[in-house]
Structures are given as C-alpha cells and as structure tokens.
Automatic annotation (TrEMBL), chain B:
Belongs to the 5'-AMP-activated protein kinase beta subunit family. Gene3D superfamilies: 6.20.250.60, Immunoglobulins (2.60.40.10). This is Association with the SNF1 complex (ASC) domain-containing protein. GO terms for molecular function: protein kinase binding. GO terms for cellular component: cytoplasm; nucleotide-activated protein kinase complex; nucleus.
C-alpha cells in the first residue's frame, strides 16, 4: 500500500477537452478531528434552532414584541450558512467550467457529500443543457461500488445542485503521475474495478464515452470511482451513435474518424488505453501534434516495453484493435486469464438466471417508495408482466434487483473482513468463475455471432440474407426516387437530414397512430449505397413526466396485436393475412408463453407492429422496383 | 490492502476500532432490514432520496440569492430582507469568491427583497426590480413551479438554448456541439408530404458509411449441429429492428426482422407473393 498525500479534493468539472479545464484547487485546512466534530455539532444545533424560529415566525402574523424581535435578530446574526435540502454547504473543492463543487454536510448524520453547483444561465449559454440532462438521467439510478453516486438533484430558479458522493483520494491520473507505472498486482486491482463498473453501465444500456484517469477518482481505501457521465448516452435497440466526443488520447479510431459506432466497443478501447497507462506510466498513443496523434491511433501501433508480460501484451492488443469487429468485448476482457487472477467475487456477482422470471416482492415495494413514481405495487407488477422491458418502472425494478446483488456481495465482503475469518487468499486451487461457467454452458446451447464455419454444400443451397435494398445510383437520385415513391403511396415523413427520414402511412383519423419506420441511406463502397429500413416502436402515452426524457430515448419492442396497454400478460397470435405466411422463430423455447395461442381480443385482432412494418417495407420496395 | 467498501464509516470515525466495528455492525443490521428499507447502501451513505427538492415543508423550494462584488469593492457583511416573512428577518449571507449568497426556501410566487450591504440598504440593478405601494424601489423575483422540477427546468433551458433552436431547424446557420440522439431530434420535427428539392439533396453531406455491425446478418450464421436449429445467436442491440431480405425468387418476397421480447429476442419472417 503506497502512502500518498491525503488531499481533500473532488474531481473538477471537465468541459469535454483538456484545454478547457480550469485547474483551481482548494485544500481543506488540517484540523483536529474532535474540534471539527464539535463545530459540526454546534452548527447542526443552530440549524435546528433556526428552523424552529423561522417556523414560529411564519406561523404568526402578529408583530413580535420589540424585545423578541431584537432577540430574533441577534440569533439570526450568528447563523451565516447556506443550506440546500438537508445539506449545509461548506468550503469550495474546486471550480469547473460549469460551476463550483463544494463540500456538503448532511445536517443530521454529518455525512459528507460533494455538491456540484451548475448555474442554469451558464450551462444554457455554453450549450450543454443536454449534456447535464444526460448525466442526471444516466447516473441517478446507478448503484455500484465503483461508480460515483448521485444521491439527489435539486433544481432552483437560478442553479441546479447535484448532491454526489464525496471522494477524498483525488484522481487516478494524479496517482499515476505521482507513482509512475504501477506494479502488476495494483494495476490489475484498479483495472478489475474499472471493468466491473463499465460492465454495469453497459448492462443498463449506458455507454460512458469519456473514460480516462482524470474521470476515475480514488476513495480513502484507494478504490476506483468512475465519474463524469456528462458524455454518456443511452444505447437504444437498432441505433448507432456518432458524436465524436471524449479526450483524443483515449478515443477509439472510429470515434476520431466521425464514424458510427454501437457504444460498448469505444469504452473497451478507452479501458485499453487506461490499462496501458497503469502498467507503463505513459500513453500508448501520444503526440503533441494532433494530426500525428490521430494517425497513430488509426494505425493501432503502440510500443510494448519488455517488462510487460506476454498475457498482458495479448490483452492490450486485443483491446486496442483498430477494427471494432475484431476488438475484445467486455466479456473477452473478463474471461482473460490475467484479469481473472485475484478477482474479488463482489465485482461480478453471479446472475441467477433461474430466478429471472420470479418477481422480487421486496424490489417491487422499493420501486413504489420512490417519491418520483407515485404508483401502486400493482402498477409495478403489471409493468413487469407487460411486453415493454423499457417501461420506466421495469427499469427501476431491474436496477434495484441488480443493486441488491451487488450490495449482498459487498456485505459479505464486509462481514469477512470484520471477522477476519479468511485471511488473504493463498495460491489455492483456481475455481471457475461463475461468468465463465455460464458462458461455457450458453455456448453449447446458443451459437455465437463469431461462428463463421460453413460447409460448401450448405452454402450453395442457402440463399443469403442482406440488409435493406442496394443501389448504384447517385445518393441524391436514390433519395429523390424514395420521396416520390412515398408520396405515391400516400405516406408522410419527417426529414431529420436528407439521408435520414422518419416515415409512416398517413393516418386515417387524427386519433390513429400508425407505426413509424426509419429510412437511412448508407454508403457501402465508392459506388454502392444501401437503403436501410428500421422499425420504430410506438412511444407509450401517459408516461411519467420525470421519466419522459429517458423513456423517449428508449427503443421499445413490438406490441402484441390488438392490445396496446401494459397490463396484459398474454400475447395473442398474430392474425395470418390472406396470401401471406408468417413464420415465427423463437430463439429460446424456455419461455413457454411464446407458444401459447390465446384467442384474439374481442375488439378484433389487428396486425402486429412487425407485420405492419413488413407491409410498409414491401409496398415501398415494390413501388421502387417498378 | 483489501477491497474494503466501507470507506465512509471508517473515515468518519477514524482510529478507534470498536467504533468502526460498531459502525460496520450497524450497517450490516441496516442492510439486513426488510421493512422500511429504501435501498441498500453498500458504502453507508445517506439514504437515497428521490425527489426534486420538495423537502419536508409543503410546497417550499430552495431559491438562491446572490450579491456579486468586484475585488476592489468587497463588502464586509451583507444581509437580505424580503417580503416572504413580511420583512421581519435580516438573513446574513455567506461570502464566497465573487459574491455573498444564501438559499431560502420559498413557495412559488412573487416576492420583493432588498440587500443591506455594510449597513446601507441597496437594490441590485442586475436583478429584477419593482416599486412598492410607498414608492420605494426593491428587487423582485417571480418563482415558478417548473423551476423546481429538474427535468422540466432542463427542458425549458434546452428549448431556449442554441442547441434547441438548431434542432428545431429554426437557425440552421448556427453550429452547435450538443448533439443528442436522432430520437430526440425526431420529437422536434413534424410530418410532411413535401419532397425536398434536388438542390437540397445535392448540397447535403453524403450519407454515412455503413457500420460493420449491420453487415453481420443473424440468419446467415451457421448453427452447429449440436444446437437446436431454431435457436439463433444472440444479437447485439444495434442489429435489432432492422429489415433484412432475400432476393425475390419464384415471385416471392421474403423479409425478416428481430425484436427484443422481455429478456429474449424474436425473429419474424414474412413470405409475400409479388
């Protein structure tokens, strides 16, 4: 354990680039613990007194007596402090681009937090309102031992206060600068914690996109806390991300090239750069000249010092692979032999798949206890049984269940350390990690995307599926023909950009809400283009306003025919159309409800959303072919 | 060094081992509780509070008041008095780098207030002002309900920001660097049947290069003989909802798409004569 200078400092707000970061630090004065405690206790007592006085003053419309007034004024004179919610604001930890970060003390528990104060006018003029909203959305429900916690967000007319976990150990960046390259065991411990946090984010469909040592904080025990989710985004089904964000040294090649990416693969690249920095004390791709830096990143060639062991070099090359399709996935990293060594159990709690279909009654009750969701337990249960896994109540429920597993493992760890029943592990027999067992079992049941083996005979027989439709005309001519065909079919559209259009049939009545689809023209090579058709799910009406931003960003699965509410627990069989045959392939028959064929709803079965999507595609393809 | 996650309690109680043990024990007891448990707190932090700032007082929300000063004219002491309590209490403000500030919990509505700077009554010219019935000038503030709901406040700010204007297509010349999802962009546009001009199509930047993930077609994967032939590989999330097709053969068009269904995925095929 390296001893380092104990600085009481939280991370600085990062404006998305190194150049825009203001480095202004504030260090708390060293003082006796008892004196600090006494002072806090006095302040707390005064705070309670102040509230009592204010309440009595507010309740009374009478003018207080001169003596009483003087007494009140004298008491007021003594209490110059700022309180937001239940927290008393203390010294400033730092000043970022968007506002200050101050220490906050919970008035009853004396617990210390970091309060990030964002001036609304400033974030508006700097054009980062969306960034702040995404950070709050993505971080507020997260509970992981290695992700900084956002306890509360308080909005006022002029400022927004984010009550966050206070971490006193400084940045991992400063730690590396101070210590140089770390020993393998210490680097591995940090890396395991980072990967555990990133895996948690990805499981909940959030990609961080700004992973770097400056955004990794250290607590008193030198554990990592992932911070700054301002560049994070929610991953939705069928959608790609394109924003070129993050710091250049840690950004993946496809990000700096402005290409589309899915999400997790760019976080894997950043983690690879961080792993290299931990082990070598330098960056794999570094150059003062930005164009030269970009060339190095796109080449994927980086120095490998002699002191790096062979397994680590293999892992680094797999993570820092330029081709995102060949790059290591988070699963690959977790399964790697070097990563598995000395891996604590709490970082990857086993997923009990047999319990996936059992509703946790306690978790349902906890969802109802959120003040934001004023719902009954029945509503939560029906949301879980409904066909929309992205319902905001389902999201909250799954987060609580996941958080419980992590908390259970962490509690076990605390118990172990408290009783010191098991000293540090020796080189005992290596037990297979549950993730590995699950992976090996699933590989026997389910083939993987990487399986490229094929027999020649089968290949000759089978026709090949292809995405959308292709053309070798010029892109503007293709889109013009598409618009003309849509007008001919009496469709209407929204133009997001000339090559990305949202389409639907014109509704027969204002109340009708026909399904929508997205048309996007892609370039395949120099002379070939591809028109991609993608189904867009209906947004659920009447969702809670607090969750509307998050809800709108989610892609929803198809709703069963004839029933659009979330209370139904049955899925009627889609009606077969005349002259059309539907074949349904279910990936896993363990969910027997897919095979059940209940009678159609009394109101008359409609086409499923998927079938309606197919009909629109077929009509448009047919018209374009003519 | 063990991976001890109980950093908070240890830091608070410092050296004494018995206190640390007591704290850990209490935390474990709290973790074991069933009734009344809001959320487990592995790090022993404060309980999770999920509100938008509407605390114990009914309808009262925090409002920040500031008195700014320059380095060469720093007041020694600043107080604020206001109509929220009929001008009864002189509230001392806390000095910071560039200002004195305080936070007062108020109901939504309109209020007048004034500052006392080093003993002199002052009105801040940079904040809203109003005259009362006696002809005196005071600062004035109007508090809205939406100021205290975080996402409503952020949505309002977003609409009136440059990014919001750009996304609505109102000012296309301005460049903005806050790039949300296309789904957020879609909510700001309206359906039309107007065909864009060929000129507009030509001026636009070319279509994006197709991502390699989309060229991984689920139904083109060979399944090992040991697997159930109806079971397909697990798709990644970007492959979902897209339409794949076979070439038209024997006058039949075949389309397919994969959607998420609960914790599984479903691939649907349509055979349609043309």
């Amino acid at each position: 354990m390296f001893s380092h200078q104990d600085r009481d400092r939280d991370r600085k707000e990062d404006g998305g680039g190194d150049g825009t970061e203001m480095k202004s630090k504030s260090r708390s004065q060293p003082s006796g613990l008892n004196r600090v405690k006494n002072l806090s206790r006095k302040l707390s007592a005064k705070s309670r007194k102040e509230r009592k006085d204010r309440d009595s003053t507010d309740n009374s419309s009478k003018m207080s007596s001169p003596g009483g007034e003087t007494s009140t004024k004298q008491q007021q004179e003594l209490k110059a402090q700022i309180k937001i919610g239940h927290y008393i604001l203390k010294e400033t930890l730092g000043v970022g681009t968007f506002g200050k970060v101050k220490v906050g003390i919970h008035e009853t528990t004396q617990y210390k937090v970091a309060v990030k104060i964002l001036n609304r006018q400033k974030i508006k003029s700097l054009d980062v309102v969306g960034k702040i909203r995404r950070e709050i959305q993505n971080l507020s429900l997260f509970r992981h031992p290695h992700i900084i916690r956002l306890y509360q967000v308080i909005s006022t007319p002029s400022d927004i206060f984010m009550i966050m976990e206070h971490v006193s150990g400084g940045e991992l960046f400063d730690y590396i600068v101070k210590h140089g390259r770390l020993k393998t065991a210490e680097a591995r411990r940090f890396f395991q914690q980072i990967i555990s946090g990133v895996d948690y984010c990805h499981r909940h469909m959030v990609v961080h996109r700004d992973l770097k040592p400056e955004n990794l904080l250290l607590d008193e025990q030198n554990n990592v806390k992932i911070a700054d989710f301002g560049l994070s985004n929610i991953m939705t089904d069928g959608d790609f991300l394109r924003t070129s964000c993050g710091s250049p040294n840690y950004a993946a090649p496809e990000v700096i090239s402005g290409k589309l990416y899915a999400g997790p693969e760019v976080d894997v690249w950043s983690c690879g750069v961080i792993l290299y920095a931990l082990l070598c004390g330098t960056l794999p791709f570094d150059d003062e000249h930005v164009p030269s830096l970009f060339r190095k990143i796109k080449s994927g060639v980086f120095p490998t010092p002699d002191f790096l062991e062979r397994p680590i070099v293999n892992l680094l090359h797999h993570m820092l692979c330029v081709d995102p399709m060949k790059r290591a996935t988070i699963k690959d990293v977790i399964a790697h032999e070097w990563f598995q060594k000395d891996l604590p159990n709490y970082l990857f709690p086993p997923i009990n798949e047999s319990e996936a279909s059992i509703v946790d009654i306690e978790a349902v009750r906890e969802v109802t206890e959120f003040q934001r969701y004023h719902v009954a337990e029945e509503e939560v249960t029906s949301a879980l049984l409904g066909d929309d896994p992205h319902h905001h109540l389902s999201i909250a429920y799954n987060l609580i269940v996941d958080n419980k597993r992590i908390a259970d493992e962490t509690a076990k760890l605390s118990i172990e350390e408290f009783y010191q029943v098991t000293p540090n592990k020796g080189p005992g027999p290596v037990h297979r990690h549950p993730e590995r067992i699950a992976a090996s079992v699933s590989s026997k049941i389910t083939p993987t995307l990487d399986n490229t083996e094929a027999s020649g005979a089968n290949r000759n027989k089978r026709a090949k599926w292809h995405l959308g439709i292709r053309s070798q005309s010029r892109p503007e001519d293709i889109m013009f023909e598409v618009f003309r065909a849509m007008k001919q079919l009496d469709m209407e559209w929204k133009v997001l950009n000339p090559y990305h259009v949202i389409v639907r049939r014109k509704p027969d009545a204002p109340a009708a809400d026909p399904p929508k689809m997205s048309l996007q023209l892609y370039q395949v090579d120099q002379r070939s283009y591809l028109l991609d058709f993608k189904s867009l799910a209906d947004e659920e009406s009447g969702s809670a306003s607090a969750s509307s931003s998050r809800h709108a960003s989610m892609s929803m699965p198809q709703k069963p025919a004839g029933i659009r509410g979330t209370r139904t627990s049955s899925m009627p069989q889609a009606m077969s159309m005349e002259a059309s045959i539907e074949k349904m392939e279910v990936h896993d028959f363990s969910d027997m409800s897919c095979d059940v064929t209940p009678p159609p709803s009394p109101g008359g079965a409609k086409l499923s959303q998927t079938m309606q999507f197919f009909e629109i595609c077929a009509a448009l393809i047919g018209t374009l072919a003519r | 060094m063990g991976n001890n996650q109980s950093g908070g309690p240890d830091a608070r109680y410092g050296g004494p081992n018995d206190k640390a043990g007591l704290r850990r024990h209490r935390m474990m007891s709290e973790t074991a509780k069933i009734a009344g448990q809001v959320l487990p707190n592995p790090d022993g932090g404060p309980p999770m509070i999920f509100d938008d700032g509407n605390e114990d007082k009914s309808g009262e929300c925090p409002v920040v008041f500031r008195w700014s000063f320059t380095q060469n004219a720093q007041p020694r002491v600043v107080h604020i008095v206001g109509s929220w309590d009929n001008w009864q209490t002189r509230i001392p403000m806390v000095k910071s780098t560039n200002d004195f500030s305080t936070i007062i919990d108020l109901q939504p509505g309109q209020y007048e207030y004034k500052f006392q700077v080093d003993g002199s009554w002052v009105v801040d010219d940079n904040q809203g002002k109003a005259q009362d019935v006696h002809g005196n000038e005071n600062n004035m503030i109007n508090i809205q309900d939406s100021d205290f709901a975080v996402f409503e406040a952020l949505d309002e700010d977003f609409q009136s920001s440059t990014a919001g204007e750009v996304l609505r297509g109102e000012s296309e010349s301005t460049k903005n660097h806050d790039t949300p999802n296309d789904r957020e962009l879609e909510k700001l546009r309206s359906f039309t049947q107007e065909i864009p001009s060929m000129d507009m199509l030509r001026k636009a930047a070319g279509p994006p290069v197709i991502p390699p993930q989309l060229m991984q077609v689920l139904l083109n994967k060979e399944t090992p003989e040991s697997c159930d032939p109806n079971v397909l590989p697990e798709p990644n999330h970007v492959m979902l909802n897209h339409m794949y097709a076979l070439s038209i053969k024997d006058s039949v068009m075949v389309l397919s798409s994969t959607q998420r269904y609960r914790k599984k995925f479903v691939t649907t095929l349509l055979y349609k004569p043309v």
